[in-house]
Amino acid sequence: MIKAFFSNWAGAFRDSWGAARALPILLVLMIGIEGAQHVIELQLGFFSPDAAVRKAASLQPVRMAFGWPKMLILYAVGLVAMRWFVTRDAHAALRPSAMALRRYLGVVLFQLIPAVGTIYAGPIAAWLGRGPDAVATIRAVCGLSQLLIEPLLLLWFVNAAMGTTGYGPIASARTVRWYYPFALLLIFVTRMPVALLHNGFNRWAAGQPLALQGAMLACDALVVGVLALVVPAIQVRIARYIAARRGVTLLGDAVAARTAAVPQPA
C-alpha cells in the first residue's frame, strides 16, 4: 500500500501534465480567471502594505462577487478533467451527456456549501456577531469539513462526471470504508503543498513593488491552474485504486465496459 500511495501521488501530477497537454483550454481558463481576479484585487488595494487597507479590500462586494464565476469555471474544469482522466479522450471529455451534467450538479452542490462559507466568511462572521478573528475560523471549518468528507465520496464524483449510476454518495462511502485513511492522507499530501504555495504567493505579494507583485501573482495564477487539475487527478486515481482493491468496477454500467479497454496510468 505504501508503494501504491507514492505511485498515485506522483501519478496525479503526471496525469495533470497530460491533461494540460491534451486540453490546454482547462489551464488557460483557470489562469485567466485567477489573473483577472488579481487585477481587481490590485485595484482595490488587496495587496497593500497597510493591513487595514487589505482588510477593507477583502470585503469589497466586487471581489466577493468575482468568486462566483471563478468557482463555476473551477467546477467546469474539474468535470472535464475528471472525464479525461477516466477516458483519456479529449473529445469525450469535452462532451458530457445530459445525465452527466445532471449527476455532477449534485457534486457541485456538495462542494458549493463550503465554498460559500469561504467566500462570505466575513459577512457570515458579522451576521453571527463575531469579530474579524472569526473569519479565519469559519474558513478553516469549511475547508476542513470538505476535506474530511470528500474521501468517502470519490467514487460518486467519478460516476457523476461520467454520467454513470454505479455509485451515489452512500454506495461510494460504503465502498471506501477502511480505505478512508489512505484516501484522506493521499488527498491531503497532494492538495496541501500546492494550496500552501497558492496562499503563500498571496501573502508574499503584499507590500511588494508593483512589478514584483505582478510576477508573484502570475506565478500564483499558474499554481491555481495546477491545483484545478491535480485535485481531480488524485480523486480519480484514489477511486480507481479503491475499486480495484475492493474487486468492483470503477463505473457501474455500460460505460465501464467501454473504458475498461483504455490503458490505465501506472
Question: What does this 3D model show about the protein?
Answer:
It contains 13 helices and no strands. The protein is mainly α. Residues 254-263 have low confidence and may be disordered. Helix 2 (24-44) runs antiparallel to helix 4. The longest helix has 37 residues, at 210-246.
Annotation keywords:
mainly alpha, 13 helices, 0% strand, globular
Q: Percentage of helical residues?
A: over 70%
Q: Radius of gyration, rounded?
A: 19 Å
Class from helix and strand fractions: mainly alpha
One letter per element, helices H and strands E, the order comes to HHHHHHHHHHHHH
Number of strands: 0
Overall body shape:
globular
Report the uncertain regions. 254-263
How many alpha or pi helices?
13
How far the N terminus sits from the C terminus, by CA atoms, comes to 14 Å
> Biggest β-sheet: count, sense, barrel?
none
Strand content: under 5%
Question: What is the averaged pLDDT score?
Answer: 88
Helix-strand blueprint:
Elements: H1 2-22, H2 24-44, H3 51-58, H4 61-87, H5 90-93, H6 98-119, H7 121-127, H8 133-149, H9 154-162, H10 169-176, H11 180-204, H12 210-246, H13 254-260
Helix pairs in contact: 1-2, 1-11, 1-12, 2-4, 2-12, 4-6, 4-12, 6-8, 6-9, 7-8, 9-10, 9-12, 11-12
Question: What's the gist of this structure?
Answer:
The protein is an all-alpha fold and 266 residues long. 80% of the residues lie in helices and 0% in strands. The two termini are 14 Å apart.
